[in-house]
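Good morning N.,

You mentioned wanting to compare the apo and holo forms, so I went ahead and generated the holo version with thymidine-5'-triphosphate. This is what I fed in:
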Amino acid sequence: MAIVLASSSPRRQQLLALIGLDFEIILSDVEEDNTKDMPPHELTIAHAREKALDAAPRANPGDIIIGADTVVVLGGQVFGKPADAAEAVRMLTALAGREHVVISGVAVVRGHQVFTGFNATTVRIKPLLPAQIERYVSSGEPLDKAGAYAIQGRGTLLVESINGCYNNVVGLPLATLADLLRQAGVELL
Ligand SMILES: Cc1cn([C@H]2C[C@H](O)[C@@H](COP(=O)(O)OP(=O)(O)OP(=O)(O)O)O2)c(=O)[nH]c1=O
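and this is what came out, ligand included:
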């Protein structure tokens, strides 16, 4: 029995490696649709489940598959990864000087069973000058990150405060994952 991470995100791979877990990677090919009319935590759980179920047929029978999805929620708006630099600037302009919530949904698939959960972290971004946003976007770092920033990179310079799980912001809430793996029969602690 192997543990399989259904994610192309290097951040998720690093976080899983952090807890000393042996795992394989199977890339999933799921397009996230953040315009679906459902509460953001349900949206991330639905995407996490789709990613894990997409990878499952390419894993070995008995393997346990992990999928995850992260979005940034500002008021009623859900931000995924920006399509281009202009959208990254718009997202960061909206986030500057305000608090938002980062939500990661996680799904663990074992055979016909699917265990799901999510975590939410509140992050406050500093007030930012347009030139600071432009320079940060020019660095390229925001382009593959939900909400157009990376707390684990230069984006940490934008963050005034964080309340909740840090790993959740980076893309994989490890304590939440441990609970789901336990339900699937794998004890990490
Ligand atoms: C807010 C934030 C997000 N992110 C990342 C985590 C996710 O990789 C990404 C959100 O996109 P996702 O669609 O959740 O994931 P992904 O497309 O990168 O990978 P896959 O679908 O194959 O699993 O944003 C950071 O790395 N740092 C941050 O501070």
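The helical segments are 10-18, 40-55, 85-95, 130-138, 166-170, 174-183.

Happy to go through it together on a call whenever suits you.

Best,
F.
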